[in-house]
Amino acid sequence: MTNNSIFVINPYKWQGMWVFDDPNVGLVKEPFVGGADTIIDVATAHIPNASKGFIAVFSAGYFPAAHIILEWVREEGGGNVYRWADRAMEGWLCPALLRYFADPPRKLHVQIKPIG
């Protein structure tokens, strides 16, 4: 777990799956599955060539540029399910979430934007 309160990752598609690397917390090609991948598809629809990479900024606390709010729903399979109420979607986040937070946050505030 890190001491930051706002985190930045650069997800991209590899072998047809959304993944990300974060050497700061020991993750390489960490996949998004269980609906989180579908949420990313929808959230990045406005970004040309998002599959080559985009910026995801996230925090347990509010920050002005966050335009997606994911709300904790339940624990499931060692991970946690979050709901994007604005789109009536749910996605599972694996235990790697705990590399960033001591406990699963009640809300995740997310900003999605193109690289560059």
Radius of gyration, CA atoms, in whole angstroms = 13 Å
Shape: globular
The largest sheet has its strands arranged as 1-5-9-6-7-8
Q: Main sheet? A: 6 strands, antiparallel
Class by alpha and beta content = mainly beta
Calculate the terminal CA-CA distance, rounded to whole Å.
Answer: 27 Å
Give the H and E element order: EEEEHEEEEE
SS summary, helix count: 1
Count of distinct strands: 9
Fold and architecture overview:
The protein is mostly beta strands. It has one domain (6-114). 7% of the residues lie in helices and 45% in strands. It has one helix and nine strands. It has one helix at 36-43, and strands at residues 6-9, 12-14, 17-22, 27-31, 54-59, 68-76, 79-84, 89-93, 107-114. Strands 1-5-9-6-7-8 form a six-stranded antiparallel β-sheet. It has a three-stranded antiparallel β-sheet with strand order 2-3-4, with no helix packed on it. The longest helix is centred in the middle third of the chain and has 8 residues, at 36-43. The model has no long low-confidence stretch (mean pLDDT 96).
Short summary:
The protein has 116 residues and is mainly beta.
Write the layout of secondary structure elements.
Elements (H helix, E strand, L loop, with lengths): L5 E4 L2 E3 L2 E6 L4 E5 L4 H8 L10 E6 L8 E9 L2 E6 L4 E5 L13 E8 L2
Q: Notable features of this structure?
A:
three-stranded antiparallel beta sheet; globular; 7% helix; six-stranded antiparallel beta sheet; 116 residues; 45% strand; 1 helix
